[in-house]
Amino acid sequence: MSLRLRLTLWYSGILAVTMLLFGIVLYFFLNYFLYGQVRQELKRDADATYSRVQKSFALSLKGLVIDLELENRDIYSTNTFLQLYNIQLKSYNRSANLQYYDVTLPITKATIDKFKGTDAYFEKTKVVGQDFLIYNHAIYENPDNPVNLIGVLQAAVPVGSYERTAVSLRYTLIIWAILTIIVAASVGWFLARKALKPIDQVIEAANQIESGDDLEKRILYDGPKDEIGRLTDTINGMLSRIQVTYSELDQAYRAQRRFVSDASHELRTPLTTIRGNVDLLEKMWKQTSGNTQLATADQMQMSLEAMHDIAGEAQRMSRLVNDLLALARADAGVMMEKSQVEMLPLVQEVVRRAQFLTHTAEWQVGNLDVLQDAIVYGNRDYLQQLIFIFIENAFKYTREGSVSLDATRNDGFVGIRIADTGIGMDKEDVPHIFDRFYRADLSRGQTSGTGLGLSIAKWIIDEHGGSVEVTTRKDEGTTFMIWLPASFPLSM
To answer: Is 119 helix (H, G, I), strand (E, B) or coil?
Structure first.
């Protein structure tokens, strides 16, 4: 059962119950109001007649009995039918209108038995095929001791018109209620359909998203900001977040595939070199049959070169594995062990060791006095690795010219600048230089490396709450400015 149908049924059901209760209350109220006036008039006429009843003793075949008479001997009434019944004599005294119609009001043993608990009551019955409301009033021998019932005074009025009015009212209310419920159900169905139309649009949009890749689909809604409007805005916002998340996951998936491909390529190259040199050494070993004295000088030289190649490629693989391990720790959220690190001794140690790196460019060190008393809360080993990564990159991409290092401070930060006059980069490459295995096309194939160094450097900077600025121009060089939060407890 659809939500639209349920809402319509609920609405129609509540309206039907409301109309039913309203009709019942209205019917019984009008019925009570109409019959209330009739009862009051009937009782008033009966009481007035009862006050005229006189009792006297008379002789009859049954002996001495009480006779009932009226003061004027007759009963007169215009609208009310009156009848006086003597139980002992079983005689009737009727009003002129009853005599005119030759009608006697019914009185039975059941009528008399009802006076055991009361002295007057109303009853509705049919007389000559017509509906009458009769007021029966008991007449006792001694009114102060209602034990011996000697007569009954009856006052009656025809209520056929009232009954017909009540029946007409009943059918009118029923027909009106049915028509109202039908109209209300139709209007409710229309309003529910209009109100729930955005829900259908939500379902349609969800189906389109499920059956395809159209994550840009949104629900169109120009109605008021009611529950449906807020639901539509919420779902549109959710779709936007899903689209962003899907895009990020897609990019992450592409980066992961590229990462696996590049890592496989970087590992395959040294493995191929090692396997080739091992095969060469195996052939040479078989040729000499294990007797090194038979080996020629060329064979010895080739063996030595093969072992150097194996050792070099093994070191390269070791560095690659260490870099991958560092990035894996970063992805796993491994927290660095940090302490208070004095920056001046650390940078001086890096400068001293950097001069022993293989390089052809001139190594220049600027003024480092600004690092005096500067303390960074971080990991000493990782901070050294961070600076070494930028220095090694600068040497790698600077065949001629110079590589320089200096320092500065600014508003609670220390800055370390590494500048070179190397090959530089295109501006399109700058946003990607910290991506894993990314190497600008200009440098790919010209310099060795795995493309993981700057990724590790960015992770170290982020873990220390710092930042890095890059300034580069093609064929003119690159400058990296590393900013790290620092304290200067001894500064004045």
So the answer is: coil
Do residues 489 and 375 touch, judged by C-beta distance below 8 A? yes
Distances (CA, A) of 390 to 387, 424, 466: 5, 13, 15
Cβ count near 297 (within 10 Å): 7
**Residue 372, Cβ density class (10 Å: 0-12 exposed, 13-18 middle, ≥19 buried):** middle
CA-CA distance, 428 to 470, in Å (whole number)?
13
At residue 175, the 3 state secondary structure works out as helix
What type of residue sits at position 485?
P
CATH number of 339-485: 3.30.565.10
Find out whether 405 and 365 touch, Cβ atoms under 8 Å: yes
pTM > 0.90: yes or no: no
> pLDDT, tens digit, for every residue of 166-205?
788 888 888 888 888 888 888 877 777 777 777 777 777 6
Burial class (CB in 10 A: 0-12, 13-18, 19+), 478: buried
- Tell me the C-alpha distance between 139 and 65, whole Å: 14
Q: What is the CATH number of domain 3-167?
A: 3.30.450
* Range scoring the smallest mean pLDDT among 130-139, 266-275, 356-365, 476-485: 266-275
Q: How crowded is residue 17: how many other Cβ atoms within 10 Å of its Cβ?
A: 10
Q: Please tell me the distance from the alpha carbon of residue 485 to that of residue 414, in angstroms, as a whole number.
A: 6
Domain ranges of the chain: 3-167, 270-331, 339-485
Rg (alpha carbons) of the chain, rounded to whole number: 57
CA gap 418, 483 in Å, rounded: 12
Q: Is 282 exposed, middle or buried (0-12, 13-18, 19+ CB in 10 A)?
A: exposed
> In the structure encoding, which two tokens stand for residue 359, read together?
């390089």
CB-based contact 331:363 (threshold 8 Å): no
Which are the contacts of 56, defined by CB distance < 8 A and separation ≥ 6? Answer: 66, 67, 69
